[in-house]
Structure formats: C-alpha cells, structure tokens
Amino acid sequence: MDGLTPYIDIAGELDCAGLVWLPEIGDEVAARSNLHAVSILVDPQGMPVTELRQTFLWLPTIEQLVNQFEARQAIIFHAGLEMGSGAFVYKTVVQAQFGNVEATGESLRISMGAALRYLLQRVQPDRVH
Questions:
Q1: Burial 70-103 (b: 16+ CB within 10 A, else e)
Q2: Residues 102, 21, 97, 105: what is their CA dihedral angle, to the nearest 10 degrees?
Q3: pLDDT in tens, 79-114
Q4: Exposure of 108 by Cβ count < 10 A (0-12 exposed, 13-18 middle, 19+ buried)?
C-alpha cells in the first residue's frame, strides 16, 4: 500500500460526510474513476464546479483542513507527533462546541482529516464551504 492510499480513504469519507469542495487551480485531486491517479488541478477544461466534483475527489492539504476547522469555529488544540503504544503517531485534538475531537494517524494530514470527518459527522447544521 502506498503512503497516499490511507489519505485518499479519509478524503473519500470527508466527501461522504458532506465536505463541500470549491475547486481552485492548485488543488490536489484524485480521479474518481481511478483514485490512484492523483494530480494537481491545473486546467479545469471548462468543466463547471458540479462536474469537477463528480470527476475528481478533493485531497485537502493541511492548510485547507485548518481552514475547514476555522470555518466551523473549531479550535485546533493540539496537532503533532506523539508516542503511543510503542510507536510514534500523529495526533490531532480539536475543541468544538460539543466537546473535544481526537484522532490519530500515520501522518498529520491523516489525523487532521480524520478529526474533521468526525466533526462533520457529529455536527451538520449547515454545509460550510
């Protein structure tokens, strides 16, 4: 399994949980027809936003994940490397209105994506871009 596969899985779960993607040039994406075909959105080829969303799965960067937490008024309390069960793991702790969200992963991007997924699944009053 390559290093990006677990994050592609998280990105798919974020998509299913309702994370709305507003496509921009420079976004990292995977073709939905072949999730291992990862690229950077350079030319939308005249596709409208809805078609881009249907064609590509958005793979948000750490900065984009941070923006998503901010949009939901969630505070990143901790994001970093920790020792757990005899191995190093990345851990993200987010303070939300309903309480804390904690997630771990083999990369910071995975742990932040998992925390955002949980936040989206827990609270969905309105879709926030």
A1: eebebebeebeeeeeeeeebbbbbbebeeeebeb
A2: 0
A3: 999 987 788 999 999 999 889 999 999 999 999 999
A4: middle
User: Distance between CA atoms of 111 and 80, rounded to whole angstroms?
Assistant: 9
Is residue 72 one of the residues assigned to a domain?
yes
- Residue 23: phi and psi, rounded to 5, are -55, 135
Whether residue 71 is contained in a domain is answered as yes
The model scores a pTM over 0.90: no
Domain range for 34 is 5-122
Cα–Cα distance between 18 and 48 in angstroms, integer? Answer: 19
